[in-house]
Write a structure and sequence with these properties.
Order of helices and strands: HHHHHHH
Number of helices: 7
Structural class: mainly alpha
Strand content: under 5%
Number of strands: 0
Radius of gyration: 21 Å
Largest sheet: none
């Protein structure tokens, strides 16, 4: 079957799925916003319990990690991620999920050969490039700071 470029373009447009970009961005914005608001609410809660600001922030981070790992273990985080997409990758909760999910998945293969080996299979590249970037930025700051 021979087609002109215009016919091919029309053919592709007719059969291509419609973009869900707007809806995906809205769901990511809402889910990420809810996670961030929850984190801020924990900071306020710990501050109201007379924690110093730095300790309140740390406690809020630990709480978010705990909730993220708990929801991952219960199979709820995956459902939230399917709805919220990139919004659930808010750094602390997304990172906790990326470490907990492989650990839970491979624990049946043993603690050493399963869980320990696969623990950072998703989060490993993030750690490598994050740490590398921070070292480079630190060197630049030390030289030009």
């Amino acid at each position: 079957m021979k087609m002109t470029n215009e016919e091919y373009t029309r053919f592709v447009k007719e059969r291509s799925p419609k973009s869900k970009l707007g809806g995906n961005m809205l769901r990511a914005f809402i889910s990420g916003g809810i996670i961030c608001c929850a984190g801020q609410a924990f900071v306020y809660m710990y501050s109201a319990m007379d924690f110093p600001q730095k300790q309140a922030s740390t406690a809020a981070s630990v709480t978010l990690v705990f909730i993220s790992v708990l929801l991952t273990a219960l199979g709820i985080y995956e459902k939230l991620a399917k709805f919220g997409g990139a919004g659930t990758l808010v750094p602390i909760t997304g990172f906790a999920n990326s470490v907990a999910a492989p650990a839970l998945e491979y624990k049946s293969e043993g603690y050493i050969t399963g869980m320990a080996v696969k623990l950072f299979s998703i989060a490993g590249p993030v750690l490598v490039f994050g740490i590398s970037a921070s070292v480079i930025y630190g060197i630049i700051l030390a030289v030009f700071g």
